[in-house]
Amino acid sequence: MSFLIPLPVVLALLGAGVCLAVGHNARAQRVISFVVLTAIVGIAATLLWAADRDGPQVVYVGGWPARMGIVLVADRLSALLLLVSAIVTLSVLVYSVGQGIIEFGRDTPLSVFYPTYLVLVAGVSNAFLSGDLFNLYVGFEVLLAASYVLITLGGTGPRVRAGTTYVVVSVLSSMVFLIAIAGVYAATGTVNMADLAVKLQEVPEGVRVVLQLMLLTAFSIKAAVFPLSAWLPDSYPTAPAPVTAVFAGLLTKVGVYAIMRVQTLLFPDSPLSDLLLWAALLTMLIGILGAIAQSDIKRMLSFTLVSHIGYMVFGVAIASDLGLAGAIFYIVHHITIQTTLFLVTGLIEIRGGSTSLEHLGGLAKAAPVLALMFFLPAMNLSGIPPFSGFLGKVALVQAGVDRAGWLAYLVVAASIVTSLLTLYAVAKTWNRAFWRPRTEEPDEVGEWVPSTGTKSGEPWGDTVTVTSVRSLPRAMVAPTLTLVALGTALTLVAGPLFGITERAAAELRDRTPYIETVLEDGSMPGDSAAGEVSP
């Protein structure tokens, strides 16, 4: 099945090009985007099946040996995350169509949305499938370039300010990553991760620790790990609901994936595991304390996003089979649930006219389906049994207890406190937005202006003319309900899913299948067949 590996990247880029060519035809752009993302879902599912059955799938781009050219690898971890990301991006695409995201204004250049969205998908797919550090950097840059466009679409003041912060932070992290790659290449003569897994062991320990710190710093900025997370709550809430949802669900997880891949493959038995435990603890607590202080749903969810990144870093830091399996399971859970909650928030904004808790109320009676769509993923995020959030947290807590040591126990305690505070934050939101009576009613007919506040007529501003603020577009409700059902169904398939994550964790810890599969083209370390002198 290795011939399928490049297709998620290639199809997304080809689809983006075709969408640009038919930019005058919104219907054609929607159809092309839908077909491409549906195909990627099917390809990702096939790759996961093949990787779980036969081990890592590898393709050598251009036929070059692994140590000389680009390698794309689909193992259990990358194929699983590719499948989840494809399902989520497809759902968000349908949601964005329902919102009428490209019909805002006759002269607004929103024909760029669909091609930019597909470029983002290509970047995410390339990052998950990359088998060398420099191609991973390229994947990050492709998805970041697309995200710069998406986060500032419309050119409104809040979006430009948020986009400026986002661009500056992203460029800084990319510079650190690029410098780290240069250091790795200078020390080892390669950027292929399978080759690095062997050659980095020959590098002096001090140099290895410095390289590891640089890579972790770059990825921690992208993943919003404390104290490198201050940029996120001010950047994501200003974007349109579909953009915010896909950013919150996916982009930070690509950073977490990079941390997991580098830590397990390049730096096993790392001396920096305690540092990662401290980062996990502080990310959980600082993030959730920020969440409970918010009076806007978008900002509250942005802080919970930061907080729950700490759970994933916790599993990576533990680095046991159970810890890694729990972290992978929690990534799958969080991608689905966090995306769903931001999509629901977009519906709340339409139905209630705002995402500020000061202006909401009575939604449980006025829109019971919307109330249910918020309640289920919110309880899942909080870790209420028997939802998948609870199951993932139990695995991580058990892994922390198995590790023993006062620091591990401290992080376990912090994870439990964070879960309880998450429940408090979403319960406060539920009480104020859905349960208490509303003090003021929106107009029956007119313009809906979200809490960010923009002027009517701005290019893709937040002003949407609707026939009734009490109605919700079915094309927005359907994909949201689908993701709510999918997030809830994770509990029903938790056994098989956790089985896959356990096998993925064992594969990450073993490293041998990955290394041997990638380097079996004749460029095994110590072999000069690749045209290099063995070190």
TrEMBL record:
Record flagged with keyword S-adenosyl-L-methionine: no
Domain annotation NADH:quinone oxidoreductase/Mrp antiporter transmembrane: ranges: 130-416
Short name of one Pfam family: Proton_antipo_M
Membrane topology term: Multi-pass membrane protein
Family as reported in the entry's similarity comment: Belongs to the CPA3 antiporters (TC 2.A.63) subunit D family.
Regions that span the bilayer: 31-51, 80-98, 110-128, 134-154, 166-187, 207-232, 239-260, 275-293, 406-427, 480-500
Keywords: Cell membrane, Membrane, Transmembrane, Transmembrane helix
GO cellular component terms listed in the entry, alphabetical order: plasma membrane
One term of GO molecular function: NADH dehydrogenase (ubiquinone) activity
Localization annotation: Cell membrane; Membrane
Name this polypeptide is given: Na+/H+ antiporter subunit D
